Amino acid sequence: MILKFTTSIGARIYRLPLMVFPNGFIGYSYLILDLDVPTLVDTGSGYDQSNQMLLEGIEAVRTEFNESITLTDIQRIIVTHGHVDHFGGVAFIAEQTGAQVGIHELDRRVLTAYEERVIVATKDLRVYLDRAGIPQQHRQNLIDMYGFAKRHVRSVHVDFSLDEDTEIAGMRFIHTPGHCPGQVCIQLGDTLLSADHILSRTTPHQAPESITHYTGLGHYRDSLRKVAHLDGIQLALGGHEDPISDFYGRITAIQQSHERKLNRVIDLIRDAQRPLAIAEITERMYPDKDGYEVLLALEECGAHVEYLYQHGQLSVSNLAEVEREDNPVLQYELSR
């Protein structure tokens, strides 16, 4: 269902639901009117039904809400971050509209050099899975799943960068790395488009910084504290899930969730009474995951292990093997 929101600065925001992945996973594109030009924030995945639902959503804003808007009126596309369910439809919409495309510098190459980014990221993921202790026969299956939904995307031109120091037509950009290196939230008066930084029901997915710079739980927690200092946010609209009316309370709940996960990792290693690899910790934390969720669990768990290691609460126990071998499994124990 399309929802309409009006901000304190008078801009009208339409939330357009998209089926970003065929498994029923819903994401949102936001059409913003009454700025200097019609602006589209995020474009869905471009996968399967996503593009068609986006076109239908824009048309519905005209016919059901009596807005004087057509697809070709859109002059600006803003991408909140470089994950495929948010930018995969950029090429399609840009070709239809001729709109200029903007994204933060740290995610710019995901759009402009997409093929390169997939190759480099896949290599870094492979190294991570080795160190996590995933057997070779399972590792390739996870790599294949990682790349499957990315094959339809191609590189696109980027026209401008999103900068915290530069407002565009009343939109203020807040750089919030962690979930993604170049993620931005967009403030329009009392309303925040919170992308995947803050969601209403789930804690946004975390991955280790060892896979991608400017991700990792440390960056994410810093970004949470950053947006907690924004004044007067009455409504947050995420890239998924429900509108958030208690913005500051939701930040607190997410912070508490990560504290519980960090403590859970510590408890699992203590209870094992021996060092554990990330794969073993993940099996204990998320025993019921299968398919692509296994990869997400490995990354989520790894982000918390990495954070504890960075903050001196965990140590690597098999240093002699690490020194001797090219890429051995890392075994973690509680620091003494």
* Total DSSP E strands: 13
**Whole-angstrom Rg:** 21 Å
Inertia-based shape: globular
Overall average pLDDT: 96
Q: Do you know the CATH topology of the domain at 3-110 and 153-256?
A: Metallo-beta-lactamase, Chain A
Largest sheet: 7 strands, mixed
Which segments are poorly predicted (pLDDT under 50) over 5 or more consecutive residues? Answer: none
CATH class (first level) name of the domain at 3-110 and 153-256: Alpha Beta
- Helix count equals 11
Sheet/helix structural class: alpha/beta
Strand content: 15-25%
At CATH's second level, what is the architecture of the domain at 3-110 and 153-256? 4-Layer Sandwich
In percent, how helical is the residue content? 40-55%
Could you state the order of secondary-structure elements as H and E?
EEEEHEHHEHHHEEEEHEHHHEHE
CATH evolutionary superfamily of the domain at 3-110 and 153-256: Ribonuclease Z/Hydroxyacylglutathione hydrolase-like
Question: How are the strands ordered across the major sheet?
Answer: 1-2-3-4-5-6-7
In whole angstroms, the N-to-C terminal distance is: 54 Å
